[in-house]
Design a protein that fits this description.
By secondary structure, the protein is of the alpha/beta class. The chain is 16% helix and 34% strand. It is built from four helices and ten strands. The chain has helices spanning 20-26, 41-47, 63-68, 94-100; strands at 2-6, 31-34, 53-55, 72-77, 80-85, 109-112, 119-123, 126-130, 143-151, 154-162. The protein starts with a strand and ends with a strand.
């Protein structure tokens, strides 16, 4: 199973459309996980065309999206459990807020956004993953999103980095 992971797309503010590099992966995805900050419901609806979309609300998402999306998700793929949250809030780092959102759950991974910083690291038994941003790299050198391959209940995360958001 191939899952495209992205967040902080901020369309149309930071880009007018999905980058070509991202589109190539969306076309072959079995599922999509979005960590919030689509910005508009139109972007959410455009993304749903590619594959089943699992998404959470971000801190800049429209009122329409706030009515449709939850603040966090627990996803089950076979025996694998993944927590998804945007990660915004007060106090602590974005990483710590993301982990705390699932402190009472048995998760194999926590996927989050908000910081626009690509992260892929193990914290105890939990894989922590932030895809970065496909359209708003901020101070990062490149734009990014993530891919997750699940085979026989084994998770393999990777980042896709690229230079142009066109």
């Amino acid at each position: 199973m191939k899952i495209v992971i992205l967040g902080d797309t901020h369309i149309p503010k930071r880009a007018k459309h999905f980058p070509k590099r991202l589109l190539a992966e969306l076309k072959t995805a079995d599922a999509i996980i979005h960590t919030g900050d689509f910005q508009t419901i139109d972007v959410y609806n455009d993304m749903r065309v590619f594959a089943p979309l699992h998404a959470v609300i971000g801190n800049i998402d429209s009122e329409e999206l706030q009515e449709v999306l939850p603040s966090s998700l627990l996803l089950q793929f076979g025996d694998v459990t993944i927590g998804v949250v945007h990660g915004h809030g007060k106090g602590k780092t974005t990483e710590k807020r993301a982990l705390l959102a699932f402190e009472h759950e048995q998760v194999d991974a926590v996927i989050f956004g908000h910081s626009h910083i690509p992260i892929h690291k193990q914290i105890g038994d939990i894989m922590l993953f932030n895809p970065g941003s496909a359209t708003d790299k901020r101070r990062e050198k490149q734009f990014s999103f993530g891919l997750l391959y699940i085979q026989k209940n084994t998770l393999h995360f990777e980042h896709v980095f690229y230079d142009s958001k066109d």
